[in-house]
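Example 3.2
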Amino acid sequence: MQGLVEIRWHARGGQGAVTAAKLVAETALEQDKYFQAMPEYGAERMGAPIVAFTRIADDPVTIHSSITNPDIVIVLDDSLLGTVPVAEGLKEGGTMIVNTTKSPEEVRDALKAAGRTVATVDATGIAIDTIKRAIPNTPMLGALCKATGIMDIEMVIGHVERSLGKKFSDEVVAGNVAAVRRAYEEAKLA
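Structure, written as C-alpha cells:
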C-alpha cells in the first residue's frame, strides 16, 4: 500500500488515546488520505492499559488487523514503559513519542530503541495547565506533528476546533488548541 503510515497508541483507559487516534484519522481524511482508526481493548476499567491504532495511506486501506510493526508509537503514560512492551515491533528508523518529563535519550536507552527517533513532551503537565485536566491526548497531537511531520499542525488544530467544538465549550476547545500548540513547541527530539 503506497504511502502507508501505521501508528500504535499506548495509554491507560481515560487518557483519550482512542479519541486522539480518531482525530488523526479524521484529519487525514481532510487531506484526501485514506484512514483507519480502531481501539483494542475489552472490559478494561479506567486506568487499565489500552492500545489503539491509526493507519493513514494514499490508497484505500485493506488491512483489518492490529498493528504489530508500527512506523510510529505514541505512549500517553510513561508508567507503561516498564510494564508494557511499547517498543515491540517499532520499525527501524521509526519514531516513538512519549508523554514524560524524561529526555529522549533517557527513554531511548531505557527501551533499547537505538536506530529510532524518540520525542518526549510533558503532555500531562501541558494538559493540566491548558485544559485543567490530566488528559494528555491533544498535546500528544502537537508532539506527533513536530516529531514526524506527517500532518500540518494548522490542519490538526483546525480539525480539533471543529471536532471538539461540537461537544465542548469554547473555553475547553481553546484550552485543547493551546495544548496542541504548546506541545508542538516543547517536544524534544533525539
